[in-house]
Specification:
Oligomer: single chain
Number of domains: 4
Number of helices: 16
Structural class: alpha+beta
Largest sheet: 12 strands, mixed
Radius of gyration: 46 Å
């Protein structure tokens, strides 16, 4: 290579630096033949500090460089200083550095600088943060070697200058060895700051050596080099306020920082995809990535989010148990011929005229259908963005669950909305068992106090707990009401979960449980099954009853309902059964879904349900608000 002004090693391989790291062979092989700026002491914030350029050559023992001064005033001044031997050392500025176990394995040389040889005796790496370009892992590397002048096309004066420079070096080499304090005192304040930082980092790395051994990681930065940082790389107060305000809008600080970094070009990915080196500027420091600061959460149960719902077991029992008819308008007709003497059969006496039987009344009830629906809409963007589960199917399952629960609730309790609510499921279309007419549902009060007195008189508390008295009162009321029951088949008891727990926890005077499990409760009540219904908890209604010949309004609390669901008919004509409709709204980019049924429902047998209630006393005005 001809015409260069001087040459020398920009960096040496397998040379252990003062901070414990070693630059390995071919760490900068990608820079072979590369042309980089020749700069004065790494100061390239001013164009006049660019003295020329250097051509890099990767060798087995390091990276060699051939340097050329430019024709600028500073370039020529630097050339004279070099020829005179005043400056004899080189340093490189590199980024994209990667290391493993203290070995520098890869990097990109960005510039070569002329530096004072005495600044860092021996090989060393001074970490700094440079801001002339996009941020990466960066370092200034000093080899401590002197370079050589090129003499092939120089005049005699240049040769003489080189000889004088060599002669001037000898006395320096022959001087007596200096102490550490002597060498340290020769440093400038800026160089001393660098030494402090390197010592602190060396101690920090030594402490974490056992944990980090074998892990490949990017070279860290010297956070003490505040003088090297400019305003472009520090988040000022206004920037921080902007990020916080953005976070309020987008919802997370991570998203706000990512937006700020993208808008201000503060993140960069290495061109070499295999290295996958990405750094971001956060609060004035270069972080390895936002994932380090904001690690991603992992789903404990991947896929569809879990649904938190009321217990759906009773809903399935109701919807499967009801009697389904293929017509939506239900009519029931009954004739009560009990206790009608006029229609009794009569004995005949010869010669007498036979009398006609009397009349009887027909009991008739009709129930018309009502449409019940669940409508939802999903934005198509969300459908496409949610990829870990089927969002459309997930929403359909929710809609179907809510429709079934609403129908089952309307059948058992009513929907609970006010009469003037436009969304109310009318009680004369789907008739709730709880509030149905006395002809169809038997309403029985549970008298716990009476059961307590009957068991042990005034000393009940000395022998039995409240749970025992409560359980006995339930069983007694249910069995007595059973005497009036006219329904078909065997009943299921739907009750508040607390009631079932009270019964299974009841103990006798010896501490033995009255019912050891749910099966024994079922046997005691003489029924098919017990279904717990969370929606029954604290449900009350206002009923008008006759006491001592007067009409009195009483508040009744629901405890449970005995019914065979086959005695409750749900009617829907063809097309009125549960149907699913899909439609896409191109104006608003919405996927719309409609689950709909048009049906009626009512008990179709008289005295086919038993409702157990607790009498809470005379009703107060606010009790009317509880449907």
């Amino acid at each position: 290579m001809e015409g260069y002004d001087f040459s020398g090693y920009a960096t040496r391989n397998d040379l252990k630096c003062s901070d414990g790291r070693t630059i390995r062979r071919d760490a900068f092989k990608d820079c072979d033949g590369k042309r980089v700026p020749l700069v004065w002491n790494h100061q390239y914030d001013d164009v006049t500090n660019t003295l020329g350029h250097a051509i890099l050559e990767n060798r087995a023992d390091g990276v060699y460089c051939y340097c050329y001064f430019n024709d600028t005033e500073n370039g020529q001044e630097a050339k004279k200083i070099v020829q005179h031997g005043d400056i004899t050392a080189l340093s490189i500025y590199a980024n994209h550095l990667r290391q493993k176990d203290g070995n520098v394995l890869h990097g990109q040389i960005r510039e070569v600088s002329l530096v004072y040889a005495g600044a860092n005796p021996g090989a060393s790496i001074q970490e700094v943060i440079r801001h002339g370009e996009i941020q990466e892992e960066e370092a200034v590397i000093f080899t401590g070697e002197n370079f050589e002048l090129y003499h092939a096309d120089k005049d005699d004066n240049q040769d003489k200058g080189a000889k004088e420079m060599a002669e001037e070096k000898k006395p320096q080499e022959e001087k007596s060895e200096k102490t550490v304090a002597d060498v340290f005192n020769t440093l400038t304040e800026e160089q001393k700051t660098v030494v402090y930082a390197l010592i602190g980092q060396a101690l920090e790395e030594a402490q974490g050596e056992n944990n980090e051994e074998g892990d490949e990681k990017p070279v860290k930065h010297n956070v003490f080099d505040q003088e090297e940082m400019n305003n472009d790389t520090v988040l000022c107060h206004a920037d921080q306020v902007e990020i916080l305000n953005t976070a309020k809008k987008v919802g997370t600080l991570k998203a706000a920082i990512e937006l700020y970094a993208a808008d201000n070009d503060l993140s960069h990915a290495d061109g070499d995809e295999s290295e996958d080196v990405t750094t971001n500027l956060v609060s004035g420091f270069v972080e390895e990535s936002l994932n380090v600061l904001f690690p991603e959460y992992k789903d404990v149960r991947p896929g569809m989010p879990e649904l938190i719902t009321y217990d759906q077991g009773w809903v399935s029992a109701v919807m499967k148990g009801v009697h389904k008819t293929p017509f939506s308008r239900i009519r029931t007709r009954q004739v009560d011929i009990r206790n009608i003497d006029a229609i009794r059969a009569k004995g005949y006496k010869k010669g007498d005229k036979k009398a006609l039987s009397g009349n009887y009344a027909e009991v008739r009830r009709t129930t018309d259908p009502q449409t019940v629906y669940v409508k939802s809409a999903l934005n198509r963007d969300d459908i496409l963005d949610i990829t870990d589960f089927d969002y459309v199917a997930y929403q359909y399952n929710i809609d179907r669950l809510m429709l079934n629960e609403e129908l089952a609730t309307a059948i058992m309790l009513g929907d609970g909305r006010a009469d003037d609510d436009p969304d109310k499921i009318k009680a004369d279309h789907i008739r709730p068992i709880w509030t149905d007419d006395e002809l169809y549902a038997i309403h029985k009060d549970v008298d716990i106090e009476a059961a307590r007195e009957e068991l042990q008189g005034a000393e009940t508390a000395s022998f039995f707990g409240d749970n025992f008295c409560y359980a006995e009162a339930i069983v007694e009321a249910a069995l007595y009401a059973r005497e009036q029951y006219k329904g078909s088949g065997n009943m299921t008891f739907y009750c508040d979960p607390h009631l079932l727990n009270v019964m299974t926890l009841a103990r006798d005077m010896n501490g033995h449980r009255l019912y050891k499990n749910k099966g024994e409760v079922v046997a005691a009540l003489n029924i098919k099954d017990v279904q717990t219904v969370e929606q029954f908890a604290n449900k009350t209604r206002v009923a008008t009853v006759t006491e001592n010949g007067a009409q009195v309004r009483k508040t009744k609390q629901l405890l449970g309902i005995f019914v065979n669901m086959d005695d409750y008919s749900v009617g829907a004509t063809k097309g009125g059964e549960i149907t699913h409709f899909n439609q896409f709204d191109i104006d608003f980019n919405l996927h719309k879904s409609l689950l709909e049924t048009r049906c009626s429902g009512a008990l179709t047998r008289i005295k086919s349900a038993i409702v157990l209630e607790l009498d809470l006393g005379e009703a107060k005005p606010e009790d009317d608000e509880n449907p």
